Amino acid sequence: MYTNLLPIIHFLPQKPTILPPPPSFSTAPDFSQAIPPPPSFKTAPQLEGNIIGNHKNSNVKRTTLTTAATRNIQRLKRIPTEAKGAVIDQLHLSKVATVYPENVLALARLQLIIALVRLQLVTALARHQLVTALVRLATVDDPQDGPALPLTEKRDPGDTQGLLIDITGQGAPALQNDQKRQKSSRRSPTPPRSGKLDSGLSFFIDTIGDPKNLVYGPNTYAVPAYRRLGYGQVIGIMDNRKIDPASARGGKHLELVKSKRPTNSQRGRGFGLWNSTDENRTLIIPGNDDTFAFSSQAGFVDLGTTDKEASNPAEKTLISSGVDYRSIEGSTNDNKNHPDRQQQDQPAKDDFEEYVRDRTVRYNRELAEDPTNVQNWLDFIDFQDEISKGLDSGTDSKRKSRSAKATLGEVKISIFVKALESNPENEELWLAYLRCGDEVWDTLTLLENWDRALARIPNSIRLWSDYINLRQTNFTSFSFDDCVKVFEDCLGTLHQISRRLQTTMKHDDDHLDERENIESLMVYVVLRLCLFMKQAGYQERAYASIQALVEFCLFQPLVYQMNPAMTLSHQVSDFAKFWDSEVPRFGEANAQGWNSYHAKIQNDETVENMAGKQFENDEGLFEVDTILDWLDQEQRQQKMHILPRRTNDKEQISIDDDPFRVVLSEDVTAILFNITTTAARKSLIYSIFVFLGLPYSPPGVGTNTHFSTDTFTHNDLQLRGFWPAAEQQQHLIGYVDGVPMKEVQRNDQNPFDLPLSYPVDVEELFAKNDHWFSCFGKQYLTTDEEVAFARHVFDQLLTIEKKDDHLAVCYLSFEASYGHKGGRNLAKRLLNDQRTNIKLWNTYAQMEKVHNKPDEARKVYQLALAAAKEFTEEDRLLVPLLYRMYAQLELECGQRSEALAIIMAMATEDQKDTSGPPSQAHIDMAREYFVQQGMTTRHHFIQQDDDTRTTVAYESLQCHALFEYLVRGVDAAGQVYQQAFDYLAENQIDRSFISEKIWISHVELLYHHTIRNDSGFQPGKLRQATKQGLALFPNNTILLGLFIWNESKTWIYNRVQDFFATTLSSDPNVILWLVYIYVHLHRNQPYDVNLVRTLFEEAVGHSRTRSSILLWKLYIQHEVRLGNTEKAQDLLYRSVRECPWSKDLFLFGFQELGSTMTTKELLNLTSLMMEKDIRTRLIIDQEELFELD
């Protein structure tokens, strides 16, 4: 039995058409819950006719048609040829039917068949002739199936072109009388809208249509792709319609509006001729050829492939080879409508099918023989991605639907389950399994599987690390107390491993690296925990945790150090007494340390308690009438109190009102552990500065390490000059494909404003802001209590770390940034204790230079060189440092001859001779000295067993390059550096820390040479050096900043674009995203707003950087600066979802958007703060603030 076939003619209406936006994170459907089952006959919806009306008041209905299909197909073929000008260019037949059991077959009502006739009409006469013929054809009664519904012609008032066939039964007003006469002559009543069949099945006929089904198809999740042609045009849409600019600025949808006339460019492309007479067409999603859908031999109705199903033959190959592989959903291949191209690509497809078949068979055989081969399982799982790419070879992977990715994830999960059955305790498999499940499972399922993994492998460090990240960032499961418990559980597991290594293998050098790794990892976990508590508002507990761990590890009583068999619980019990005594602790004034307290207790000496603090009362503290008043008081209290409160302190807010001000011993003892390695000890010391937000990185740690790229430890980066000046963005310029529509002014970018990501040495610690990359300044700490705490930290650490020269240099830089007098006094005090410390002498001179006292700096260098002659040979090793820095000082002051005389004095060991230029004999002698010095010291680059001798080798290389630069020029100096780079590459240490420092010194020489304009601007030299350096150290912002600065001079940004495109695709991190956004903010005046917004969106959308508080704040601030408060508010909610622990984001939202939020929005935001346990110092009285009943 066939259903009735009726022709349907439809033209586009004159009102604007709405295009849905392209796929995005905010509009895409959520597939995280479950994957919908494939369509079946039992679950398939009842598809019925869907006709789009043209009149504004007409209703679209769905009607079941009941005439014979075969006869009407023949009738369509006999359309009169007199309707000249009518061209039937395509005939689509869509057949959908439901097959019932034989006993109810006669009662079943077949579903809709739509025959779409696309008409290209030239004249009104031709249209009238064809419509008349179709009406006559459709109203012929069928003797078997009853009468057909009437077809009427319907026109829009005032529209001479719009035309459609209406089968709604309503008809146009002009034809209502004819419709009444037709209604009286019907032989059958209207079919019922609902009822029950004899078989007991109930049915309901839906008569409410969806006009967009014809345009976009019935699948509401399939967002149609479209391509912009430029000038508001969309490919495939007639030339008299363009995108409404107002809708484009709105960002939610695009509207097509009728333009005045086609453009010449459109006519030239051949668009105008055929569209001019067919402007009201409705573009309908193409169907599939289902000629054999009703095959009687199959026993079922073949629906064919849909747009959401893969049609590549490779899928059938996988199934036939015995692999349980579901079809991968993806976008339709662009070649499917090009038979010629398909024929050309067929051999490649056949090769791919054969390749997939062979690989699949091989994996099945090998895994059946050896299911314990974990690498084979992982390769087989990765192979699924390769298959997916092959099936979607014509589709951009970035545009693949989320459902396709989810389906691929389900396929992988099924393979993982099989793999874990044979390898239940393999860490690599579990990690890959859980990361894959993160894209597929809901939150509850994900956490359950994490619990299974940790129960199976409780000692896995990598599992715990990823689990911490998950629990901190997962919005659904996040709460402060639960997250702290996860950190403590992780530390407990790591402590069991470290305790075993410390007790049984403490003197075993073979396991030294293992102990270092475990203990350093524990330090990192504590740092993450302290940053987490600080960012959630629990500052006192965060500072207390740092104080407690430093006291326990670095100021431990000698009795515990000499007795390693003593249990940790006994040590912690004694430490709790020290903590509860409320004596001064680490970082506080007059702190003596736990060891001093323990000695006094053992000797029955009196222990002086810390004096109570008295804080001035704030009269406006409790006068809070609005949310902005609360915000002001909250921020003031947060800056005023950072260290834990003592019981004898007198404050305006009582302990009962804010109990988190007091930190008890039980709040900190759960994170305590012992440290036995030098590396872990150093990690703990410099973790304090990371916690405080100070830029002092540990020595020997380069930018290729996790320390420099960790998202969670880089939320306090200082961004000087990140935003362009406000006046530069007043007159906005439109950009089309990155090309400004008006002339723009190029912006000379400052390379020194990039975020800090480079090894910090004396050059950076005492550099002037506009002369070189600088860490010098007091911009890092904002309150007096923080500054005092940092001073005490430096003082107390130097009492136990006297040999840490880098720590002393950092202290001098910190103190000198708050005043020249304080820095000079500190330098003299440190030199009195370490008279022979050449690094301290050099730091003293650099401090004088940075305060614009070059004469004082010269005196310090001359005094140090004179005193060094009396030093021991070991203490004299770093004398090359004094010569190099002294010569560079003269070079910066424009005294080139003085600089050469100084560097020559190092080689000849004579006094500086400035009577005239050196002779050639002296130059040759000096060159021979530097060559020999380099040859005898460079092996320390490889061994790196002694930091001092590695520094000597580095300084000798620097002096040799500087000598050649002063004598023969920049090319000769470049040859010296190139020899060093070749040596490092030969010994496979070209990515080491010392290699990075050498690259920095090389580009520094080239940059200053360019600034001095000694031989004209030669961008090629600096470009080559920075590009080669960035190939090894892509996260180094000194190399990156000079590379961008050099390219900006040439007005060519292709190399910069290529670098970021490559690097961000392989290793995206916060540093690279910030630099890339900075480049486009300062490249032109004004900048391309949409491009910057796109970069922000990509940054916060990536899995590695979506939890960056800093990126989210900058993104929100960007929209606020542009006045897009609604967009900024949406971003605020998204940021809170990705960073649910960040109190700063909540306060930032109140500060920037509080005045524009409604009462309900403010109420929801404050409620969310309380729900997530974000700590507030002042109680948020919602009833009073928001005047709730």
TrEMBL record:
Pfam families: NRDE-2 (PF08424)
Compartment(s): Nucleus
Keyword Nucleus in annotation: yes
Region (Disordered): 144-163, 174-199, 305-351
Listed InterPro entries: HAT, NRDE-2, TPR-like_helical_dom_sf
SUPFAM superfamilies per the UniProt record, alphabetical: TPR-like
SMART domains: HAT (SM00386)
Main location: nucleus
Record's keyword annotation contains Membrane: no
GO biological process terms, semicolon-separated: negative regulation of RNA catabolic process; regulatory ncRNA-mediated heterochromatin formation; RNA processing
Keywords associated with the record: Nucleus
Residue spans of biased composition, Basic and acidic residues class: 335-351
GO cellular component term of the entry, any: catalytic step 2 spliceosome
Family: Belongs to the NRDE2 family.
Protein name: Suppressor of forked domain-containing protein
